Amino acid sequence: MDELVPMTLDGEYIEVNQAALQEHKNLGWRECEKQEQESNKRLSIAEIRDVLTEKGVSFDLSAKKTELQSLLDQNNEAAE
User: What DSSP character marks residue 12?
Assistant: First the structure.
């Protein structure tokens, strides 16, 4: 069985089969680190805002959850 490839888009996380990898990339998905079950837990908007604030990341208070999650993902990738 083929190994699944972890991917992310706008704060969403999925794992796809190698055969579907290029189709997902064409739709804007990008490869990312595999997320453990525990860290894959959905955060609330308030929790995402708290984490961003703790990391010193500025954000628009009217930003939607997907925008905030994207900022958090970008910040996490930059820290790696």
Answer: E
Residue 31, SS3? strand
Could you report the per-residue pLDDT of 17-45, keeping only the tens digit for each? Answer: 999 999 999 999 999 988 764 443 578 89
CB 1 within 8 A of CB 61: no
DSSP-assigned beta bridge partners for residue 14: 7
d(CA 2, CA 42): 27
Rounded to whole angstroms, the Cα distance separating 4 from 13 reads 12
Q: Where are the domains of the chain?
A: 1-34, 42-80
Residue 43: which of 77, 68, 16 has the closest Cα?
A: 68
